[in-house]
Specification:
Elements: H1 4-11, E1 13-17, H2 25-34, E2 39-43, H3 49-59, E3 64-68, H4 73-82, E4 86-89, H5 94-103, E5 106-111, H6 114-122, E6 127-130, H7 138-148, E7 152-155, H8 164-168, E8 176-178, H9 184-189, H10 192-201
Parallel strand pairs: 1-2, 1-8, 2-3, 3-4, 4-5, 5-6, 6-7
Bound molecules: 3-phosphoglyceric acid.
């Protein structure tokens, strides 16, 4: 069985999605899978997150589904129950990391400086999210961190078609996350064709 790191390395791009209505979940998963991007990080920024993960998992058992913006242990429980493969948090919260480790679910916490990388390493983590990537120094900062630490990074925050290749060119970067390829307005309009075009272009 492939590890999370291997699966992210293969997929390369993680769509970070805020779903406003659970009815969007399956059509969205459908568009992602059918257009070659069988992955989603569904953020707990909306009430619809837990149920959306459950619906996507039911419809596409093989899809790689993460729960994003996880800030509490209750949200970790909900994400696991719904069928999430991994948990993502914007910052490095040792309580959340420990809880995920106890529950046996992969966690990719956000870091944006050397001290946080070291704290993550001390807790046994080998992959972290670099967030918010662009405001935190972007590719130059990542190069500096990568020169020192044997960890892999998943940058997100300010990544777009114009800079994504620069990040992916770094050996330490396994995948990039972002919201640009799944705009909420297209989902709210149910414009799945335009979404499909965006994802195919990507
Ligand atoms: C995240 O949670 O990873 C970010 O909100 C993604 O940032 P972006 O909207 O700049 O892509």
């Amino acid at each position: 069985m492939m590890t999370l790191e291997q699966r992210l390395t293969e997929i390369k791009i993680v769509p970070v999605i805020a779903i406003n209505d659970t009815q969007q979940a399956v059509p969205l998963a459908n568009v992602l899978v059918e257009n070659g991007l069988p992955c989603a990080e569904v953020t707990f920024r909306t009430e619809a997150a837990e149920e959306s993960i459950r619906l996507m998992r039911e419809a596409y058992p093989e899809m790689l589904i993460g729960a994003g913006t996880v800030l509490t242990t209750e949200q970790v429980d909900k994400a696991i129950k719904a069928g999430a493969d991994f948990i993502v948090s914007p910052g490095f919260n040792p309580t959340i990391v420990k809880y995920c480790q106890q529950r046996g679910v992969a966690i990719v916490p956000g870091i944006n400086n050397p001290s946080l990388v070291e704290q993550a390493m001390e807790m046994g983590l080998k992959t972290v999210k670099f967030f918010p990537a662009e405001p935190s120094g972007g590719v130059a900062m990542l190069k500096s961190l990568s020169a020192v630490y044997p960890v892999k990074f998943m940058p997100t925050g300010g990544i777009h078609p114009g800079n994504v290749q620069d990040y992916l060119a770094l050996k330490s970067v396994i995948a990039c996350g972002g919201t640009w390829m799944v705009p909420s307005d297209l989902m709210d309009k149910g414009d799945w064709d335009s979404l499909a075009t965006l994802i195919r272009e990507l």
